[in-house]
Amino acid sequence: MTWLVLISIGLILLVLLPCLMFIGNLQVYKCAPKTGELIQKAKLTGVSVLIPARNEAEGIRKTLGLLLQSDHANFEVIVLDDHSEDETATIVSELAGKDNRVRLAHSKELPAGWNGKQHACWQLAHLANHSWLLFLDADVHVEPDALTRVLSQMIDRPVSLLSGFPRQETGTFSEKLLIPMMHLVLLGYLPVARMRATTDPGFSAGCGQLFLALAEDYFRCGGHEKIAGSRHDGIKLPRLFRQNGMKTDLFDATDICSCRMYRSCRQVTTGLLKNATEGMANSRLILPFTILLGGAYVLPLLLLGVGWLNQWPSIVMVLLSIATLLGFIPRLLSAVTFRQSWMGVLLNPFAVAWFLSLQWIALIRHILGRPVLWRGRI
User: Fold this and answer.
1) Domains in the chain, CATH or no CATH each
2) Sheet holding 102-106, edge to edge
3) For residue range 116-162, what is the model confidence (pLDDT) as tens digits?
4) pLDDT tens digits, 230-242
5) ∠ CA 199-201-202, rounded to 5°
6) Is residue 169 within 8 Å of residue 258, measured between CB atoms?
């Protein structure tokens, strides 16, 4: 009985870590300012919106249409067609002919050793006319005040690189369970206040869907050229800035933009597998995170079931019940704050187990030399 009690207490401690971290981070991880002097200053600041696009015909018209409804006073939109095999370039060209704020560019051939997105972003940075570079994924849909508020956030907290996490729209079962894991891991295990106080690369974090950089600092540290082969600019770009002594920051972009990354179980799993080894799925991190996530969110419920079947002592069952219930708190807070699915909350232990299994699959594939194809490229 003693060892069961000790294990149960250990699981409570494991789950208290992300619970307390999540609650603490919500106090400082906020949306961009809506009003005030910063907004007026930001509204006049010129910004280049840079969009890499490969086979985005299905949604690029809506993305650009929403951008052109922006109430920002001074901006340009440059879309780089990365050898699309659909009508992406035609659609962008049509819109550019109607609004001179939009410009279509065509990507050069992909050099050996480069990832397609990094190559596109590097070219886009050189085409920009403004000193602020807003890298935006082609499936990110913005509100009219988004550009001004992103800039106001940067002015309010001056850093070299700012990243916002859009509202993650989900439709299918796999999306509802797996996509919100980004917030669960980010806010459950990254001390945001500590991250802001240092340039330590160990605190690198961001979302590749939305990055705002000061052009001078971007080029000074080498920008996307220095992470040419990476598939995970969400981590690699902030790390690059921090390695060069520059501060990076995060903010909640839930109320100014949204994104639906994937639309099927296959897309979700492939999307998570493609860059997992540059994040958690490596020999240094996968075991600690398996213990942290599995011990906090999966094991308590499993042991509770085993204990019920084997009639374990009441004190053990009470402790395991506490650990299990605590494990739902971060996901519950995440669903309320970031407008996520309640199905994901109810099935959080299953979601975490699924997520961890994908990390291990990604690592095994990497060891076996079996890279994941994305948009027809390795």
Assistant:
1) 2-25+281-367 (no CATH), 29-261 (3.90.550.10)
2) 102-106, 75-81, 47-53, 132-136, 210-214, 161-168, 248-259, 140-142
3) 999 999 999 999 999 999 999 999 999 999 999 999 999 887 899 99
4) 988 999 999 999 9
5) 115
6) yes
